[in-house]
Amino acid sequence: MSQVQEQLTAFRELVKKIKSYEEAVGLIYWDMRTGLPKKGVEGRSEVVGLLSTEMFKLSISEEMNAFLQFLSQPQHEAELNDTDRKIVMECQKEFDRSRKIPTEKYQAYVVLTSQAESVWEEAKDKSDYAMFQPYLEKIIAANLEFVELWGYKDNKYDTLLDMYEPGMTVAILDEVFAALRKKLVPLVAQIQASNDQPDTSFLHQMFAKDKQRSFSLLILRQMGYDFDAGRLDETVHPFATGLNLGDVRITTRYLEDDVVSALFGTIHEGGHALYEQNISADLSGTNLCTGTSMGIHESQSRFWENMIGRSRPFWKQYYAVLQQTFPGQFDDVPIEAFYKAINVVKQSLIRIEADELTYNLHIMIRYEIEKALFNETITAADLPRFWNEKYKEYLGVEPANDGEGVLQDVHWSSGAFGYFPSYALGNMYAAQMRNTLINRMPEFSANIEQGDLLPIKAWLVEQVYQYGKALTPAEIIMKVTGEELNPAYLVAYLEEKYKDIYRLV
């Protein structure tokens, strides 16, 4: 074995060790969000802090530095394959970023965010922003300090965006979101003025949780979710977590007076899980064994939730099953009425329950808020007022309390600033991929109508999932569609769908 191969083997063992710590922390977080007793939060947060710090220390250790310096030398790098070069590159990026953060600051931050999520949950339940505000102020201050340490070029917020969508900037998002807003706002106005408004009352009867769960499990199996490598649990805010290729878990939230909230939440998280379950086994134990970006990740959750789950062909197959699951509750509701009801466009307050069209406006509001926070034109104390003003401006509604307003999302409690734009980017990626898929698979709609979803999953595995983080978002979208990200496909998809539903000219 050559010296390069010896060093590479030892390097990959170190990377695997870091991934093992990451898996342990991920499992603890899953437990904290699904079943941890309230009194256990403080102690468990300390455990998360200690384990995360050990992982952090390994990523910036002298051992890691020595491996990176050796393997990055041109004569040594030439002996590496493409995957190993990418592993080295990702470790180098993490090393360069993380070594700028003092270890004690990192540990304190992890403990803070672990505690903050539990406080957020209680504050949301009580609609008490004042309870959460001190934690949020510290989280924002820490991120501002980290951005200064990491450095930035044009905009502080760019540094945070890059962590979730490599290469994404405020300049790009401002342009893309402006183009979307220009097309979507008039379409929303047309829809609101339409006399053909769907009836949604039948969606809000009482629906037993156990029956909702059984229907959700059925759909997950139809999608190809592997229950031997995952599970479905209940939590306050739905999420997916990929611990390893054989353990990718999802959660959902059941509302007894809403038959589709949990279903679409489950399909959404199932889309994330399909991605994580189908990464190539060759990448297992490496830093490439995850989605390439949150934008591409969200493209899969939004594709499965909306472009499959809310489509007319989907319900031609599964509506009868839903009727059988809830006997007597939909007997007098034609399938077309149901289809229109689950795609109703309305001015809403809650992002995760928003329709497919106005959802993007919910994301733009959060983008504007985060951009303002990290350019320091507003503070945490301003958030309830600023949030309510933006909702009035963008969607014409105003929250009655902070639980349905500024406290509705879990993301800020974990410090996930820069994440929200990924949802809208995901919609754009998804529409662009869908356009390509339809052109390459003429039987696309027929497959959905027949409940044969596995060929669609197989195409996505081949085109996207298997590569994990081995390809960048830009490389993925170019490989799949033959062009760079183009918001025109999302606009075209939404116009076609909603002009049909609302009978607009």
Radius of gyration in whole Å, from Cα?
Answer: 23 Å
Low-confidence stretches: none
Number of strands: 3
Strand and helix order? HHHHHHHHHHEEEHHHHHHHHHHH
Name the strands of the widest sheet in spatial order: 1-3-2
**N-to-C span:** 70 Å
Number of helices: 21
Query: Can you tell me the overall shape?
Result: globular
The average pLDDT is 95
Question: What is the makeup of the main sheet?
Answer: 3 strands, mixed
Helix content: 55-70%
% residues in beta strands? under 5%
Characterise the protein shown here:
The chain is mostly helical and 505 residues long. It is built from 21 helices and three strands. The chain has helices at 3-34, 41-59, 62-71, 74-77, 82-98, 103-126, 129-150, 156-164, 170-193, 209-223, 261-277, 294-308, 312-325, 335-341, 359-374, 383-395, 421-440, 444-449, 454-463, 473-481, 488-501, and strands spanning 232-234, 240-244, 247-252. It has a three-stranded mixed beta sheet. The longest helix is centred in the N-terminal third of the chain and has 32 residues, at 3-34. The protein is globular, with a radius of gyration of 23 Å. The model has no long low-confidence stretch (mean pLDDT 95).
Write the SSE topology.
Layout: H1 3-34, H2 41-59, H3 62-71, H4 74-77, H5 82-98, H6 103-126, H7 129-150, H8 156-164, H9 170-193, H10 209-223, E1 232-234, E2 240-244, E3 247-252, H11 261-277, H12 294-308, H13 312-325, H14 335-341, H15 359-374, H16 383-395, H17 421-440, H18 444-449, H19 454-463, H20 473-481, H21 488-501
